[in-house]
Amino acid sequence: MFEQKFKPFLKIFIAAFLVFGLVSCTFYWSKSKYLDDREEQGSILIYGYINDKEAPFTMKWGDVKQVRPVSDEPYKELRSNNEGLFYLENLPTGLYKIATLSGPEKGLSESYWDWTMPSPSDDKAFKRMELKANKPGLYFVGSYKIDKVKDGGLFGTDKYETIATKEVSEKEALQMLLVYADNTKWKKIIQKRIKQLK
Amino acid sequence: MKIILKIKGVLVLFFALSLTGCVLPKYSVENLNEVAADEILFIGRVSMNPPITKEEIQIENVINLSDVEMHKVLVMKASDVYYELGGQHATDYQDTVAAIDGEYYYFTWNKNKPLNFLGVTFITRMTSRNREYMTFTIDKGIKVNHSGKSKAVYVGDITFVRDEFFNIKDIDINQKNYKKAVKEFRKKYKTDWKVEKAKLTSSK
C-alpha cells in the first residue's frame, strides 16, 4: 500500500536528486545584489571594490566580521554585484573587518576560493579593511586588486597578493551601488554622498 | 585518575594536531621522565592581553572533547635558527609548542640547539568551510640563552597586548614571576629540580 502510494513520487524524487547532483557542481548560492528595503535606524552600509581579473576566482560573495558589538554570528555575508563591488547594509554601528572575499574558481574547476584579506600588520594600506563606525552612514573600505605576482607554469603554483589601488574611487563605487538601492532609505543617502564627492 | 590525565593530554595533543596539520607540536610533558638526557625542560607562559574570548572567534561543527577551550590555545613557533616569520602561521612549520593562554608550559628542547621564539599562532575561525588563523610575529625574535648545565630553564612571561582586531599593540617580556614559576613547577611535578633563569636577548 505504502509502496504503491509513493512509487510515482519516488521516481520524481530520484530524478530531481540526479538533476540537482548534476547542476550543484556549478551552482553557487549568494545574496541578492539588491539592498534590503527595511528601515533600520542608525545603521551603516559598508562597501568596497576588488579587481579580480587576475585572481584565480571570480568574487561573488564574502564575509565581513562584526568585531563589536559582539554577536553570536560575527561573520555576515557580503553582497556582490559580480563586477568587483562588495557591500552590506543595515549593520549596527561598531567595529568591522572585511574577512574574506570568495567565489568560484575560474575555468572548469568545481571548487571555490575563500580569499582571506590581509591584516594591517602586513601592510598599513589595509588599515581601511578595519573600520570603526561610530556614526550611522556609509563606509568605504577602499579599492583593491588581487595581483598575480608569480606564474607557476604548468606544474607550479601561481602566487597572488592583494594590493591597495585607486582604480575605483569612492564616488565610482557609490555610482555602481546606486543601481541596487532603489526603494531603500540608502538611495537618498548614496545620492547625497555622491554630490558631496563631486 | 592517571588514565583521565593521559586522555586529557591526548585530547590536547589531538586538538593541537588539528591546528598544525600533520606536524607534531611540542606540548607540556606529563612527567619529568620524559626529559631525555640531552634535553632541557623550558618553563614559561605566553598570554594575550586582553585574553581572547570565545565570542571573538568562530568555532562551528567542531567537537572539542578536551577541557581546554579552543580559543585559549596558542601555538608558539620555536626554532634553532632565527628567520623572519613574516606573518606565516605556525601551522606550516615543525617545532611548534602548543601552549594554553596564561598557563605555564613545560616543553623539552635539545640542549645543544639554540632556542628562539619567533611568534604565536591562534585560531580565529574554524567552520566546515573556513579555517583561519592569526599570527603575531615577535619582531627580531627572542633568543633563550642558558648555560646548558641545567635540566630546567625558566623563560619568563611573554604577553601580547592586542586590540579588538587582533593587531599587536605591544609585546611585554619579563621574568618577574621566576619564584612563582619555580614553585608551581616543583609542585606540579613533585620535584626539587633547580631551575636556571634564562638570559633573554634579541635573536637578530
Our count of helices of chain B gives: 2
Count of alpha/pi helices of chain A: 3
Helical coverage of chain B, percent range: 10-25%
Shape of chain B: globular
Strand content of chain B: 35-45%
Largest interface: A-B, 17 and 16 residues
Average pLDDT over all residues of chain A: 85
Give the helices and strands of chain B as they follow along the chain: HEEEEEEEEEHEE
Radius of gyration from the alpha-carbon trace of chain A, in angstroms: 20 Å
E-strand count of chain B: 11
**What is the oligomeric state here?**
heterodimer
Q: Outline the biggest β-sheet of chain B.
A: 6 strands, mixed
Alpha carbon gyration radius of chain B: 16 Å
Shape of chain A: globular
Helix content of chain A: 10-25%
Q: Which spans of chain B have pLDDT < 50 for at least 5 consecutive residues?
A: none
Which structural category fits the helices and strands of chain A?
alpha+beta
Instruction: Please write the string of helix (H) and strand (E) elements of chain A.
Output: HEEEEEEEEEHH
Q: Kindly name the structural category of chain B.
A: alpha/beta
> What number of structural domains do the residues of chain A give?
2
How does the SSE layout of this entry go?
The complex is a heterodimer of chains A (198) and B (204).
Chain A (H helix, E strand, L loop, with lengths): L1 H22 L19 E9 L9 E8 L6 E6 L4 E8 L1 E11 L7 E5 L13 E4 L3 E14 L8 E7 L4 H9 L7 H12 L1
Parallel strand pairs in A: 1-8
Antiparallel strand pairs in A: 1-4, 2-3, 2-5, 3-4, 5-6, 5-7, 8-9
Chain B lengths: L1 H19 L18 E11 L8 E2 L13 E7 L16 E5 L3 E7 L4 E12 L4 E15 L6 E11 L5 E7 L3 H12 L5 E3 L1 E4 L2
Parallel strand pairs in B: 1-8, 2-6, 8-10
Antiparallel strand pairs in B: 1-5, 3-4, 3-6, 6-7, 7-11, 8-9
